Amino acid sequence: MPKCSQLNDLFTENISTLMNILVLNGPNLNLLGKREPEIYGSRTLEAIVADLIEYAGTQNTQLVHFQSNAEHELIAQIQSVLLESSVSNAPVDGIIINPAAFTHTSVALRDALLAVNLPFIEVHLSNVHKRENFRHHSYFSDIAQGVIVGLGEQGYRFALDALITILKNKN
Ligand code: DQA
Predict the structure, then answer these.
(1) I need a labelling partner for 73 at 20 to 30 A (CA). Which of 26, 67, 87, 127 fits?
(2) What is the pTM of this model?
(3) Nearest-CA neighbor of 125 among 48, 16, 11?
(4) Which domain holds residue 147?
(5) Is residue 84 a part of any domain in this protein?
(6) Which of 49, 124, 133, 156 is the pocket-test mutation for ligand 1 (most atoms within 8 Å of CB)?
(7) Is the dihedral of CA 160, 119, 146, 13 positive or negative?
(8) Active site residues per annotation
(9) 13-31: per-residue pLDDT in tens?
(10) 139 alpha carbon to ligand 1 midpoint, in Å?
(11) Residue 1 maps to a domain
(12) What domain count does the chain have?
């Protein structure tokens, strides 16, 4: 039977291992399920995110998801990490981002991620390296903790597992 102080330690450890992760999805990903299913799969973003949130719960992790077709809205969401606590009043620990087409164009989103200086993982459903040349360059890969491409929706789960491990090792 653990002593009171040991229980206290366990309790504190549990609280401190609760992680808050922001999941961001860029333009046209709201059309998942309808959009080029042979490339992006047949499941909706809603279904993918619901599964991810459920899985995160089993890992003592809270997710907040945000999708936008507008670059400035994604930037505002990233900035909110510094300006206010965006995940249930708790500080955000890390970010998973599929910047979609902004991957290949957006210095502004890159700068926002550099500004908040949080570990992040870049995810792409498709294997961008098998596709058109313009998809081979990313403005994020060299500053990401890791990049997952071509594994479909599983990529988000792998990213979550990896980010949790990275964050635990950091603390
Ligand atoms: C994508 C790949 C990008 O090149 C494309 O513009 C997307 C989705 C992916 O998840 O495979 O919109 O990020």
Answers:
(1) 127
(2) 0.89
(3) 48
(4) 19-170
(5) yes
(6) 124
(7) negative
(8) 40, 124
(9) 444 568 999 999 999 999 9
(10) 13
(11) no
(12) 1
